[in-house]
Amino acid sequence: MLRPSFVPPPAFRELRDLTRYRVDLVSTRTAEKQRVEKLLEDALIMMSVVASDIFGVSGRDMMAALVAGERDPKVLAQMARGRMRAKTARLEEAFTGRFTDHHAFLLRTMLARIDGITADIDVVQDRIDEQIAPFAATVTRLDEIPGVGVTTAQAIIAEIGLDMTRFPTPAHLASWARFAPGISESAGRKKGNSGTGKGNRYLARALGEAAVGVRRTDTFLGERYRRLAHRRGKKKAIVAVGRSILMIVWHLLSDDEARFVDLGSAYYESRVNLNRRTRNHVRELQALGYKVILEPAA
Fold this sequence. Notes:
The chain folds into 3 domains: 124 residues, Helix Hairpins; 119 residues, no CATH class; 32 residues. It contains 13 helices and 2 strands; from the N terminus they run H-H-H-H-H-H-H-H-H-E-E-H-H-H-H. A two-stranded antiparallel ribbon has the order 1-2. A hairpin with a 2-residue loop joins strand 1 and strand 2. The protein is mainly α.
């Protein structure tokens, strides 16, 4: 299947630049946060073992206190707020380390960099919201797909545009995005799925994050992810569910009146039962000497 060439209109090119830059900024911030965790571990400050997010309000207060010179584990642990208050004993143990002025200097620098990147992300996001305002209704419709939030919807629109006439079918869009299942063959023998190939990494990231986000939902896509992950592994489940989401997007963008309707997590089981009953009835009729031809009712 050919990948049609496409030069998006200026408005979409600008939007694409913004959404891609936002992704790059988020990746940079994530890398800096990982450096902070590594620095704390080097100082035997095991905050990340106790707190699920050390960059929350409590975590930031504790790190600010460390930078300011506070070293008493009891004082630091008492800065916990909300649900973390129940973990003060464990926090005291986590803060029993060897945090030095050297660590304080590096931590201060890293936190300032994280705050600077966060400010840049907010500025870029405001610009994205401004640019995509004419397509707000479309963003809302895509946001209804499980796993697809507003940010993901904006990224998808920026990458594929709104004109689906250049993709005759959802499969054409999946192929263009390199989210079509591939088969590798050698000497006539199939060697399995060859993967998605080199496609649009920004679109792939958005679809992948949506697929991962849907895995715990009580929805059709959530059940599809769980069934595939159990049988084929998480990576293949992400690709398959991401492709399903892309096909849903094609239908929604092809019809301005279309809205997402979830089939429900029980769809698979009901479908399996229906197919099983159909096969059983066909076998019974065939055993009685009948030739069975199935035709769907009008």
